Amino acid sequence: MKRIRHSGFTIIELLVVVSIIALLVGILLPAIGKARDQAKVSISQSNLRNLAVAHASYAAEWSDRQLTYIVDNASTYGNFGNWFSEYATEHGSDLSWNHAGNHTPVYLGWGHTDAGDYVRFMYSCVQAANASLVMPIVFEASGTTTEYFGSFRLPNGEQFAQYVSGKFYDKTFYAPKDKAVMQSAAACFESPDDYCTHADVSEELGAIPAWASYCLSPAAMYNPSVMAHDDPNDDTNNGWQDPWNLPAGFRSPAMSQARYPNLKTHMLEHHWLQNAQQDCNGSFEPGTYSGCEPYYFNHAWESSPMTLFYDGHVEGLGTRKAMRADGRMRAQTGEQNWGLWSKDTPWGDDGYLIDFGYDQAATSYHILTTDGILGRDMTGG
Asked: How confident is the model at residue 58 (pLDDT cuts 50, 70, 90)?
C-alpha cells in the first residue's frame, strides 16, 4: 500500500502569507483610524446642530435675544473693578454671597458637595474675578487672572443648559476629539446631578469646572458698537470702543441682527482638534487639565474647527481660509485696521493669544470679529 506524504508550507510560502497579512494590516489600520476620526467629527457636528436648536429655543423665549449673563446697563454702575458692588448697593445688597440684591450669578446647576449636601453651585458676583465671568470676554483685567476669559466660554451655564438637558456636563457641550477636556470631565458625564464637582482640573486654578469644548463668539455678544470698524471717512465708526464707556455696551444683540448669518460664526471648537499635531501648549502655566492646556483653534495653520454659523449650518472653518478672507477684506478697504477681525482692541496685533500659537498662524476670527454680530468671519465665494 502506497503511503501519501503530506508536506507543510515552505519558508517562502510562509513569508508570502506573512507579507500579505502585513500589507492588509497596513491598509486597514489607517482606514479604521480614519473612520474613527470621522465618527468623532460627525458627533461634534451633531453637537453643534443640537446647540443651534437650543439657541433658537432660547431666542424664542427671550424675544430673539442671545444668551447673556450680564445686565444690559452694567457700564452705568462703574467699571471692571467696582460695577458689581455698585449694582449690589443700589439693589440693597451687603455683598453677602446669596443676597437677592446681588447681580444674577452664573449658575452651574444643582448637585452634591463632597460632604453630601445638595446645593446650587454658582459664581456669585461679589468680587471682581467672579463678576468677570458674566462679561462676554474680559479685555483688561485690572490685575486679576481673568483677562481673555468670559461668558463666551460658558455655554453650559444653567441659564442655557436648561435648553439642552439641564446638565452642565451634558456630552452635547463636549467634543469627542477634545481629549484633555474629555478626560477631565469623564467622572461627571454619568452623574445624575445637574452639576458635578469631580472634574479633574489643575488645583492651582481653584475649584473650576472642565470648560465646554465649544465657545460662543464674544464679539457677537457685545453691542456691535464695541467692535466697530475703523473707517477714516466715517466719524461714527472709529474702531473698537471700551464697553465700559458705552451706556449699553453690554446689551447683547438679537439673533436676527446677524447681517451675514451664513458667514458669521456663532460657536466653534475652542481647542485645536482637527488636524492637530500636538495636544498641550507649554506656553500656558499651569495648564487647566492636569497640567495640560491645549492649543486653541487659532493657534495653527492646519486647524479647522467644526463651526456653527448664525444661519444654523455647520462646517469646518480652516485657519488658512479665515486668514485669506481677512487679507482680502483689508485689501478691499485699503485700511490695515479694517479687516474681518479687529486689531485695535487693547491686545493689538496679538489679538486672542496669537503669540502662544504652534506656528505662524495669525488670526482672531470669531473672537474679535469686526462689527460684532454685524460683521463676518469669512467672505462668500
From this structure: very high
Locus of grid cell 502655566: 285
Radius of gyration of the chain (CA): 25
- Residues 264-286, mean pLDDT to the nearest whole number: 95
Residue pair 91/101 in contact (Cβ under 8 Å)? The answer is yes
pLDDT of residue 246: 95
In a domain, 119, yes or no: yes
Count how many domains the chain has: 1
74 and 252 Cβ atoms separated by less than 8 Å: no
At 203, is the pLDDT very low, low, confident or very high (cuts 50, 70, 90)? confident
3-state secondary structure of 122: strand
- Using CA atoms of 108, 134, 258, 336 in order, give the dihedral in degrees to the nearest 10: -130
Per DSSP, the three-state class of 172 is: helix
Residue 105 one-letter amino acid: P
pTM score: 0.89
Domain containing 84 equals 33-374
Instruction: Please give the torsion angle defined by the CA atoms of residues 144, 145, 148 and 153, in that order, rounded to the nearest 10 degrees.
Output: -110
Amino acid at 334: G
Give the pLDDT score at 190: 93
Q: SS3 of 278, please?
A: coil
What cell does 271 get?
481647542
Strand partners, 314: 308
DSSP 207: S
Does residue 11 belong to any structural domain of this protein?
A: no
Cell 474629555 belongs to: 182
Residue 36 predicted with pLDDT over 60: yes
51 lies in a domain?
yes
Neighbouring residues of 365: CB distance < 8 A, sequence distance ≥ 6: 265, 298, 317, 322, 326, 340, 341, 377, 378
38 exposure class (CB count in 10 Å sphere: 0-12, 13-18, 19+): exposed
23 part of a folded domain: no
Q: How confident is the model at residue 339 (pLDDT cuts 50, 70, 90)?
A: very high
| Residue 166, phi-psi category: left (phi > 0), alpha (psi -120 to 50), beta (remainder) | left
The angle formed by the CA atoms of residues 306, 158 and 76, to the nearest 5 degrees, is 95
Percent of the chain with pLDDT strictly greater than 90: 76
Distance CA 374, CA 345 (A): 17
Residues paired with residue 289 on neighbouring β-strands, in sequence order? 292
